[in-house]
Structures are given as C-alpha cells and as structure tokens.
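Forum: Protein Structure Q&A
Topic: Joint prediction for protein chains with partners

I've read a bunch of threads here and the consensus seems to be that you should model interacting components together rather than docking separate models afterwards. I'd like to see that in practice. Below is the full input, 340 residues plus whatever partners are listed. Could one of the regulars post the assembled result?
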Amino acid sequence: MPDSLMTPRDFLQTVVARTLSFKRKPHMKRSLLVALACLPVFAFGQAQAQTSATAPSAVQDLSGVSGPPMLGIHWARGFDPSPRLREASKQARRSKSPLMTYHGGKIMPSSNTEAIFWGSSWASSPGDKISGMDSWYPGFSNSNYAKTSVEYTGTNGQVGPMSNYGGHVIDTSASASGANTSAILAEVCKIVTNPDPTGNGYYAVYTDTPRGSAGYCAYHSVGSCSGVPVQFAYFFKLDGDTGCDPQDTSGLHSQGLAAIANVSGHELAEAITDPASPGAWYDSSGAENGDKCAWTFGGPLVTFSNGSQWKIQGEWSNNAYTAGTGYPNSSGQSGCLGGQ
Ligand SMILES: [Zn+2]
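Posted by a regular:
Agreed with the consensus. Here's the joint model:
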C-alpha cells in the first residue's frame, strides 16, 4: 500500500474520530472494512447525514458508523465478505509473516466478566444457556484455554489467565440487532450501573435475536459508560444456525449453548489481547488471535478449570507458530493452540 494513500483502516479511524467522540483506532481486517462498506445494512444500520465529500467511494458508507467499531468479528462458516479482497488477503499471507505484532496499546492482565441476557424469551425459555454460560465464564479462569493468550504483553503488563465472573443479569426488554453497536453499548451501560473502574470489565451481551442474513456470529467492541472504559461483546441467538455451529457432538449441551460457548471463547480471547485504544495484538491484515484460528479446533473438547467441557476453537500463538508446536489454521499456518 503506497504511503500516500489512506488505508481503509486509517480512513475509518479518521471518520470515527471526526464523527464520534471515540478514540480507538479500529483495526478490522481490510477485507472486513470493504465488506462493511458494501453491506452497511448489516454492518452499521442506517447511515447518518454526515458524509465526507472526499471519502473514497469504496468506503464512503462507513461514514455512517453509528457507534463503536465492530472488532474481531467472528464470521459465519464459509461467509465470504468479498472474493476479491479474500484473494488479496491470500496474496498478503503468502508474502508477509503470519505473526501478530504489537500496536502499542493495553492488554487485559485479568478480566472481570459479566453476562447480560437480553430479550423477552430469556425469562420464559432460557434452556441450558444461562446456566451453561454461568459455568463457562468461571471455568475459563485459569484454564489451559485461557493460558493460550498469556504470551502477549502491553503497556500495562502481561495477559494473565485469571478471570472473575460477576454473574448474569436478565433484561427482558426487546433485544436489538447487533448492527448498531451504539445500541449494544447503551444496553451495557443501562445494565451495568457500576462498570469495573480498572477498565478490565468485559460485558457479554447474549440476545435472543437470530442471525438472519448477517455474515457474522458475534463481535467485540469497546466504549465507555459515564467515562469508564468497558469492553463488550454481542452475540446472536445461534439455535439451528449451521453457519455458526461448532458441531459439538458431545451431548453435553444444547446446540444453541454449544454455539454461543464457542464464539464466546473467540471474543473473550480477542478482547483480552487487543482490548482498547490504540490496539495491541493483531496481524498485518488486522486479524486478532481468535480470527486467525476461527473454525479450527485443537481437539474434540476443551476442559475448563471447573471441569466443564466445551468445543471451542483454538487461539493464535506467535510462540507456537515459531516453535512449530501449534495446529494449523484454515490457511495451514501452524500457530493455533486448542487449550486442551
Ligand atoms: Zn474475531
């Protein structure tokens, strides 16, 4: 990319900084940026009036960003945001190191998590999902799976394996689609009246909204509630959704729980290693540790520290790639650790 050209990443940063009082440097994949530009209806909802006359047309629709950026989007299986950009990404992979590099920001030395189950159906028909995630989050703490991210450091120290789960809250008001990230942040700020002042609060919003035609299963993002920085994540209801199904055949969980458990690992691992402005760990195409190992698994099940078992994708480890000890991701790069 010539230096004289503004990259989509830089453009989005400029637009976001100009239209919002939001300082994070977005670091979505370039392919993602264009995909979002082409599909603003699923990405950011309705465009706002503010547009830039000088914006490159390919990304002009991003001026309608109505909230914090979607980060580390967990694409549905087989979803192809843009064949041309996918090819460009392949070429980039051939010529560049697959290692993630550090971008100067903080990491989460530990995380303080909370789950928000948003939507009218959670009170009447939660199935095994609420109880399941109430086991998933405490079990993540100090698990081998959590330890797949501990090699990464930031300005505030090193990623650690510990995570504190503060339990769940059910909000039976109608849940929103994930397309408007501001609406999800607003829900977090409504429910979490005293967010973790350390900035290590991570609030996972599980909705009862089906994915529909959206190309992604979940994403994580960052914002603030009354000036306190918060990490948050959005999850669709994935019941019967073959595009976001890890195909857990253990019989331990309903399919819908198994699906949100898998994407929960992806998003939490990414939030821990790449949580906030100006970004910490991602590769030359903007992929975070979860993205780089999406839809690949180190084994049939991961056993958490509390004995609960889940089928969860692995996470990218620079160390494992360098040492040749990881399992291959979908590009054949052996840098994934399953956390078994
Ligand atoms: Zn991701």
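Residues 255-273 form the longest helix (19 residues).
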